Amino acid sequence: xxxxxxxxxxxxxxxxxxxxPQSVPASPVQRMVSQLNLxxxxxxxxxxxxxxxxxxxxxxxxxxxxxxxxxxxxxxIRKATDEKIKPILTGDQWKKLLELRxxxxxKKGKK
Length: 111
What we know:
Number of helices: 5
Number of strands: 0
Helix content: over 70%
Number of domains: 1
Largest sheet: none
Shape: extended
């Protein structure tokens, strides 16, 4: 009898185990870039850059660095990301990205 219960529980768990993995939430930079109407070529070139940016920023959370050091390192990561994506964007797209960041900073109460 216990074997049947165990077997039934294992079978019931199969859909949860085979479900597609949850995607990682988009970073603020990824959300902003999604509003720039990128061409397919731009998207293909920028997506890996943003994925790397997001990975590096997430790694900071478990780094053991102080909040100040994390903020400084995050700013360095974002600056490097900007240097990589700016040449891919048109002038208007870059301008819009800067405007979106300013709006985001204003919402968060940053200067």
